[in-house]
Amino acid sequence: MIINRTGRVGNFETTYKKEVFEFGEVYEVLLVSKDAQQHPWHIHGYTVNFTAVGVMDLPYEIDECGNNITIYRSYNFDSVLPDYTKSVDVIAIGDSFTVPATGYVAFRFKVDNPGPWLFHCHMEWHLATGLAMVFSFEKSGTYQNLISPPPSNFPVCGSKNQWLTVPSNSPSSPNQVSSAYFVAVSFDFFVLILAFWL
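^ that's the sequence the OP posted. Answer follows.
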């Protein structure tokens, strides 16, 4: 499902709510940016193999208002991407990367960590305008038999004190839990809700 709306500065905010991947399969993702600035991206829950990165020499047209319109759909990616049916050299391995200005990045991974995982631009204001999606890694449309149920003492709404519980043999005490931890947890939760809400 795609949500489209006009943004604050006349841009279009587009967010893919969810992209489904089948558990156990290998996928190659090609991320293309026609933007004149680079974008740092991060995928949660996975470490991927980067197989291609580059900048496109794009043709352009001038529209009726004199604006330069880049024609990125005409770019021949087959000329720069490795054969997706064969094993290829891996450029790098990681969970974060930068897509160059008017460029692309391709990565491959095997779906072996089930559940919904956020994939987003790491420029937070870009995230807020739609540069994010949820990758849902499932088997035949469900997480059943892929994800264990939460433990019986899993914190739920109204039980925030459980988040502060530290085992007695731990060198830390609840008073040493930093506010940065709560900010990070709150932000990740906010981003996940935002991705589903948009």
